[in-house]
Amino acid sequence: ENLLKEARKEVASRFTGFKMIAHVMVGEPAADFKKKQQELVLKAKQEAADIAFKLKKAEEKRKKLVEKRTKELERARKKAEKEKEKAAKKAEEEAKKKAEQEAKAAAGEGASEEPAKEEEKKAEEPEEEDDEEMKEEPEPEDNEPPPKVELADEEKKLWFKKSVIPDLTYYVMNTTFTKFSLPEKDEGFDEVKYVWLNEKK
């Protein structure tokens, strides 16, 4: 509405009895305004970088967990195979010893104490530990901070922070652009100040 003469006159008519001053901001903004806009641009850029950094770290953590889980499953599979082979070998040895004992018994020989001693010796032998389990160490804590961003040369030249939502829709712009105008005193203003141009018109 501030860009349309009739709309400005209608608004000004509501405030009779007051001193009406129109502050017009056109042209190159003041230095403090540009600085504030660039601070907003930098803040938005840093927030976007922080989000991207967190997503990257989360993805890295997910991949590490998948890799760790895959290794654990592979380790469990190998361990199960070893246990299976060990059990099969033990069963084979026991069957062989039993057959030998039965053969000796049939031949009239006394039972040997050697098998019992061998069993005791095997029972005393420690289980082989998985080398991979021994080497596994806890993951170090990741305290890497997000990278600090800076404004690019082109961004330092910006006067206004770009908004996701435009001030005017395409429809309004296309249908009213030819009616846009700057305020004049005859619209009901006592004074018209061009703030950024630092001059009165």
In short:
The protein has helices spanning 5-12, 31-107, 114-124, 131-135, 153-156, 170-176, and strands at residues 21-24, 191-194, 199-200. It has 201 residues and is mostly helical.
What does this structure look like?
- By secondary structure, the chain is mainly alpha-helical.
- It has a domain at 31-103 and 142-160.
- It is built from 6 helices and 3 strands.
- The protein has helices at 5-12, 31-107, 114-124, 131-135, 153-156, 170-176; strands spanning 21-24, 191-194, 199-200.
- A hairpin with a 4-residue loop joins β2 (191-194) and β3 (199-200).
- The radius of gyration is 43 Å and the shape is rod-shaped.
- 1% of the residues are buried.
Oligomeric state of this protein: single chain
* Spatial gap, N to C terminus: 21 Å
* Mean pLDDT over the full residue set: 84
Main pleated-sheet profile: 3 strands, mixed
Counted beta strands: 3
- Taking Cα atoms only, what radius of gyration do you get, to the nearest Å? 43 Å
Which strand-content bin applies to the residues?
under 5%
Class inferred from helices and paired strands: mainly alpha
The level of helicity is 55-70%
SSE blueprint:
Blueprint: H1 5-12, E1 21-24, H2 31-107, H3 114-124, H4 131-135, H5 153-156, H6 170-176, E2 191-194, E3 199-200
Parallel strand pairs: 1-2
Antiparallel strand pairs: 2-3
